[in-house]
Design the sequence.
């Protein structure tokens, strides 16, 4: 199994490129204990960031929700990520940008202490086409939290535990990923990206009120509108999900991946890989080949 502990290459850490094995933090780092580190996963295609500005802007908003400020602008971080790609001679890659509170103070209420940042990257080819096999989801027993109990619009380390537990249970049961509901038994999201239903010529997605809204999904919505498809965000029940013509998941990691099954006990549903999903997957792949300047802005709403 790949481990950065054994890896070569360089990581950007607080403004400098350092060898992987020297990028260390102290075991008493507060964010390690409290889960208030914030991070983003970004794709690079052909050596260039894809929707990087949107991700770095959300990183800043996530930090603000945790009570601290990112010490560098989205443009500075984009340039740092490009430097990491260049230094490690990477073209198609995953990039992880993370910020955390330093070890100067362990108090949960004290805002003193430095904010540290790192950006790493590793080779990651584009996801192989799922073809007719598609993604099989396990209906998780875990639920997404009520929006008044957690900063659900922030990508923070603490909230990742729910997805990790659900995904691990799904994998142990022989599935690809897990689907979580909210506290009202409405469809929320898989652990990787967001879920989208196809109802004839309309895309339907759950309102992102208890899970992280996908930047990649917003991009796919724009592609869908260019095809003349309607886009609706509303509450989605399991009955709505079962009745959909097609279902797919969308996210930075998975791009556009067809969902073909949902199971857990008596709850079972099947879908074919349909033409709308195939077309949008093709459109997404084509869009990654269009080089977008780092200075461009791709805004998302709701945060």
Sequence:
């Amino acid at each position: 199994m790949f481990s950065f502990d054994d890896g070569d290459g360089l990581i950007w850490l607080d403004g400098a490129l350092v060898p992987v094995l020297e990028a260390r933090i102290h075991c008493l780092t507060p964010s390690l204990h409290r889960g208030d580190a914030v991070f983003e996963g970004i794709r690079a295609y052909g050596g260039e960031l894809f929707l990087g500005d949107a991700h770095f802007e959300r990183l800043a908003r996530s930090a603000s929700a945790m009570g601290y400020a990112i010490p560098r602008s989205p443009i500075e971080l984009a340039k740092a990520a490009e430097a990491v790609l260049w230094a490690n001679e990477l073209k198609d890659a995953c990039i992880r940008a993370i910020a955390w509170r330093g070890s100067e103070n362990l108090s949960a209420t004290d805002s003193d202490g430095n904010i540290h940042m790192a950006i790493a990257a590793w080779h990651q080819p584009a996801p192989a086409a799922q073809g007719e096999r598609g993604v099989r989801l396990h209906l998780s027993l875990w639920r997404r939290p009520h929006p008044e109990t957690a900063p659900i619009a922030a990508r923070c380390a603490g909230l990742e535990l729910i997805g990790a537990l659900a995904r691990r249970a799904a994998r142990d049961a022989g599935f690809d990923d897990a689907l979580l509901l909210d506290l009202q038994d409405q469809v929320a999201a898989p652990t990787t990206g967001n879920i989208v239903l196809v109802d004839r010529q309309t895309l339907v997605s759950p309102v992102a009120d208890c899970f992280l809204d996908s930047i990649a999904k917003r991009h796919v919505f724009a592609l869908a509108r260019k095809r003349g498809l309607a886009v609706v965000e509303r509450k989605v029940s399991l009955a709505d999900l079962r009745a959909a013509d097609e279902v797919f998941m969308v996210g930075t990691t998975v791009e556009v991946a067809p969902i073909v099954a949902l199971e857990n006990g008596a709850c079972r549903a099947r879908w074919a890989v349909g033409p709308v999903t195939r077309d949008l997957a093709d459109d997404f792949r084509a869009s990654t080949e269009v080089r977008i300047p780092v200075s461009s802005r791709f805004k998302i709403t709701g945060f």
